[in-house]
Amino acid sequence: MTRPSAVLFDCDGVIVDTEGPTFSLLIQDLAAHGLSLTRHQLETDFIGGTIETVASRARAAGARLPDGWVADFYTRMYALLADGTPLIPGILGVLDALDRAGIPYAVGSNGPPEKMQISLGQHGLIPRFRAVLSGQALGNPKPAPDVYLAAAKACRADPAHCVVIEDSPSGAKAALAAGMLCLGYAGHGPEAPPARGMAELGVLLFANMDDLPHLLGLSSAT
């Protein structure tokens, strides 16, 4: 691969491992409101949007969510993540390799800014990125391309020369709609529902962050 002009990262499940605790909290909470889901069902039918879209889909599937559930869930999720959110193994090595190569990078997430302040902020990572952007805050979350187009602009890079690192079909659709190459992180294996969804879009999957510098053409910089 020719070295990209910029690399744009999703946040949850790509940089920080927020998904494990968040999924567990969601499954427990939805069950308490009348909708029992397995993790497989959650990943297949509910993940890739925002908590607002999760609420809408859950209600359509029979969950009896009270008014104010979204705001209440965010409050409890933030408290959970503030207790400690691990980094995805190998991600710091990727950022170091990009720094050595002089390639700018940014975050384009569907999560709200407050969530990234907690998850990325506790590791001191926010200053490393050219921008940390929220599709939700922009008013048009993924699968719309807006957040990745804004991230490319922040990096002063042509979208056609950017590479996006994603872990969900919704995010991959956003990258492709922006005219960008997308690589799919499949840390839970190629048969996990998000990985299968990305593969169906023609996205190249990889399972180990240590492999990403090579995939980006940075081997000589590592």
Show the helix and strand layout.
Layout: E1 6-9, H1 19-32, H2 39-45, H3 51-60, H4 69-82, H5 91-101, E2 105-109, H6 113-119, E3 132-134, H7 135-138, H8 146-154, E4 162-166, H9 169-177, E5 181-185, H10 193-200, E6 204-206, H11 212-215
Parallel strand pairs: 1-2, 1-4, 2-3, 4-5, 5-6
Which descriptors would you attach to this protein?
single chain, 222 residues, alpha/beta, Rossmann fold, DNA polymerase, domain 1, six-stranded parallel beta sheet, 44% helix, globular
Structure description:
The protein is α/β, with parallel strands linked by helices and 222 residues long. The protein has two domains: 6-17 and 86-221, Rossmann fold (3-Layer(aba) Sandwich), CATH 3.40.50.1000; 19-82, DNA polymerase, domain 1 (Orthogonal Bundle). It contains eleven helices and six strands. It has helices at 19-32, 39-45, 51-60, 69-82, 91-101, 113-119, 135-138, 146-154, 169-177, 193-200, 212-215, and strands spanning 6-9, 105-109, 132-134, 162-166, 181-185, 204-206. It has a six-stranded parallel sheet with strand order 3-2-1-4-5-6. Helix 9 (169-177) links the parallel strand 4 (162-166) and strand 5. Helix 1 runs antiparallel to helix 4. It is globular and about 50 Å long. The two termini are 15 Å apart. The relative contact order is 0.18.
Stated plainly, the CATH topology of the largest domain is called Rossmann fold
Q: Strand sequence of the main sheet, in spatial order?
A: 3-2-1-4-5-6
Name the structural class. Answer: alpha/beta
Summarize the helix and strand pattern as letters: EHHHHHEHEHHEHEHEH
How far the N terminus sits from the C terminus, by CA atoms, comes to 15 Å
Name of the CATH first level of the largest domain: Alpha Beta
What fraction strand? 5-15%
Q: In percent, how helical is the residue content? A: 40-55%
Q: Low-confidence parts lasting 5 or more residues at pLDDT below 50?
A: none
Q: With helices defined by DSSP (H or I, 4 residues minimum), what is the helix count?
A: 11
CATH architectural arrangement of the largest domain: 3-Layer(aba) Sandwich
What is the number of strand segments? 6
User: Which geometry do the CA atoms define?
Assistant: globular
State the domain count: 2
Mean pLDDT score, rounded?
A: 93
The largest β sheet comes out as: 6 strands, parallel
